[in-house]
Design goal:
The structure holds two protein chains of two kinds.
Chain A (H helix, E strand, L loop, with lengths): L13 H20 L3 E5 L10 E4 L4 H10 L7 E9 L6 E8 L6 E8 L4 E3 L9 H11 L2 E3 L41 H4 L2
Parallel strand pairs in A: 2-5, 6-7
Antiparallel strand pairs in A: 1-2, 3-4, 4-5
Chain B lengths: L1 H13 L21 E6 L11 E7 L2 E8 L7 H7 L6 H5 L6 H16 L5 H30 L2 H22 L8 E2 L2 E2 L7 H23 L3 H7 L7 H6 L4 H6 L6 H4 L20 H25 L17 H6 L1 H12 L7 E8 L4 E8 L7 E5 L1 H7 L1 H5 L4 H11 L3 H5 L1
Antiparallel strand pairs in B: 1-2, 2-3, 4-5, 6-7, 7-8
Helix pairs in contact in B: 4-5, 5-6, 5-12, 5-17, 6-7, 7-12
Classes of the chains: A alpha/beta, B mainly alpha.
Chain lengths: 192, 420
């Protein structure tokens, strides 16, 4: 038994409710953006809860902007941005979780990126993307081009390496006994 | 003094700031000569909830610019999630939002069960729902109480805290711990509720309703409270969407979304409750929404306790069933299975799922990617605090520094969930 077995108390009806909507949306995206949609993984065919759309890095802002506002999509709520280290080539996947408040459907976008490559930022669409993107840079070392404040967020500025990479050791402690002083130059970059 | 200067220059060099100094330019907006100062609040400061730090440029008392720093209690939970078995990770989920640990436990257990296709029995689901709502009440009582203390209303806090301690006693009867509960197991619960627990919960619900009315009378119409909260740190509906706000803070701004009603899980579609909405998005509206949510949660707890029936609490699934202690101590097979379970863990089939839940402060979700085996490939924790804290700088821009404390209390940022 795996995720294909619907559990009625944990969103068991999700696929039945949204499968028609998802199929329509995927077809529309593929028709509109063509090659920008690299691969589609639908639930039932692949062990996932919602469809996964792999988008080319250079088109992610256009696709997201369209999905955010277009009729029939309205994915206006950016639920989360994160990344995974796949230990393959391309190494990282940036994962965007979207939620539509109009029909409560969820969808997942992914961008494959090689080590050292940059992904366009989506802070122009959602300010909320600012910190998660910084966290991805902090944890995986993937930089976002056009980001207003691309520096570490959870780890200290003096930290070396990216701790959520699979090759970073579990006990790779780096101790910084003192707290950095306030840096007033950062005041300019904080808001908007 | 000399060493201090040296340390300072070292950090500036590290940050790439050598030679570059920040100076505040004088202009006609200055309230008086040198009215503009830069103030550092935190990381350890009684007004900051947890180890948070804010650096603000003030003009008189007004915040002109600010930025925040956090990560001082970062414990690498996501890394641990990739290096511990699914069972071992349960204890780490308590330490996310420690005001409502049970909500994290339940959400985590359900996200793993979803990947494994496990359906837990009805009694387990009703119990989980009840503890979820109890911890929502506890979280809201803490949030409101501390927010009131920050603004200066102390006795309100004591009323709420008394009921919260009673609730902790109920939780203690379930699992032996008050704060770090670790109550859920994958596919079941640690223990069944003791005999008579349902009645004790019902009595607590009745008492808490009464206390809530008293708290309402004490504070809601209070002139000082109203003047300190109405129109403070307003966040509009659009701002909330830009910053991905969810939960009571978003509902206080008029976003009519509650995952319990709109995307029901467990038995939330079988109970009746209302979703309170406010329109102004200020501290006062967040207070009102939270007060009403406590009442609705109490209604849900009451319904859970009426509908719960005796029965099994463990799913009928051999993969995740922890052997009974009787078997472990008295049979060879039981002992072997016990060690296998706790040392190597159980395999979760390949798949990925983002399992969300309306936690006390907003959307809490676990995004688990499994490549098979007893450990996750990726364990992402989406806590509402991260997104709420992000909006603080914009929320308090142009407000007084004392109102920043009120704003921070009203969005209820929990450092454990923020830093992970």
């Amino acid at each position: 038994m795996n995720i294909h077995q619907p559990v009625s108390t944990i969103y068991g009806k999700m696929f039945d409710t949204y499968s028609a909507i998802w199929l329509k949306q995927v077809a529309e995206l593929q028709a509109r953006f063509g090659g920008a949609v690299e691969e589609v993984r639908m639930p039932k065919e692949y062990p996932t809860d919602v469809p996964i759309l792999f988008i080319r890095a250079e088109s992610i802002v256009a696709v997201m902007d369209f999905m955010r506002t277009a009729n029939g999509f309205e994915y206006g709520f950016l639920a989360d941005i994160t990344a995974t280290d796949e230990e393959l080539e391309p190494r990282f996947e940036i994962v965007y979780q979207l939620l539509s408040h109009s029909n409560m459907s969820r969808i997942r976008l992914k961008v494959r990126v090689r080590d050292g490559e940059e992904v366009p930022t989506i802070t122009s669409l959602w300010v909320a993307a600012n910190w998660p993107e910084r966290e991805i840079y902090d944890m995986y070392g993937v930089r976002f081009s056009g980001h207003p404040n691309m520096r570490r967020i959870l780890m200290d500025d003096r930290f070396v390496g990216h701790p959520l990479r699979k090759d970073y050791p579990l006990r790779g402690y780096q101790i910084f006994p003192d707290t950095p002083l306030p840096n007033p130059n950062l005041l300019e970059r904080s808001v908007k | 003094m000399e060493t201090n200067l040296k340390a300072q220059s070292g950090i500036e060099k590290h940050l790439g700031l050598s030679g570059e100094h920040y100076s505040i330019e004088k202009d006609s907006d200055d309230l008086w000569d040198d009215s503009r100062v830069i103030v550092n609040i935190g990381p350890t400061h009684p007004a900051m909830h947890g180890a948070l730090r804010m650096i603000a440029q003030l003009n008189g008392e007004t915040i002109e610019k600010s930025y925040v720093e956090f990560g001082f209690t970062h414990r690498a939970k996501e890394k641990l999630g990739e290096n511990r078995t699914y069972h071992q990770f349960i204890v780490y989920t308590d330490r996310l939002n420690y005001c409502s640990a049970l909500l994290n436990n339940v959400t985590y257990a359900m996200s793993v069960e979803r990947l494994m296709g496990i359906q837990v029995p009805d009694r387990c689901t009703w119990l989980r729902m009840a503890v979820c709502e109890i911890s929502r009440v506890m979280d809201h009582l803490v949030c409101l109480g501390i927010n009131a203390v920050d603004i200066g209303a102390f006795s309100f806090f004591l009323y709420g805290f008394h009921e919260r301690e009673e609730a902790y006693t109920l939780v203690e009867k379930l699992c032996g711990a008050r704060l770090t509960t670790s109550y859920t197991r994958i596919g079941g619960l640690m223990h069944d509720a003791p005999a008579g627990w349902e009645d004790q919960v019902k009595a607590w619900v009745k008492k808490t309703r009464k206390t809530l009315d008293e708290m309402d009378k004490l504070l809601t119409g209070n002139k000082i409270w109203v003047q300190r909260t109405v129109g403070i740190s307003v966040f509009s509906k659009e701002d909330c969407l830009r910053y991905s706000y969810s939960g009571p803070v978003a509902r206080a701004s008029g976003i009519d979304i509650d995952l319990r009603r709109d995307q029901p899980m467990m038995f939330y579609d079988k109970v009746e409750f209302d979703v309170p909405i406010a329109q102004n998005g200020d501290v006062f509206d967040r207070y009102l929404v939270r007060m009403e949510e406590i009442r609705q949660s109490l209604n849900i707890i009451q319904q859970c306790m009426e509908r719960i029936k005796p029965g099994p609490i463990w799913a009928d699934d051999k993969r995740t069933r922890i052997p009974e202690k009787d078997l472990v101590h008295n049979t060879m097979e039981g002992l072997i299975y016990h060690f296998k379970f706790f040392m190597t863990g159980f395999d979760v089939p390949e798949g990925e799922a983002y399992t969300q839940m309306e936690a006390a402060n907003g959307e809490l979700a676990f995004y688990i990617v499994s490549k098979g085996g007893p450990k996750a490939h990726r364990m992402r924790i989406r806590g509402p605090s991260v997104y709420h804290f992000q909006g603080l700088c914009e929320m308090v821009q142009g407000e007084k520094i004392a109102d920043m404390v009120a704003a921070l209390g009203s969005i209820n940022v929990i450092a454990g969930e923020l830093d992970r």
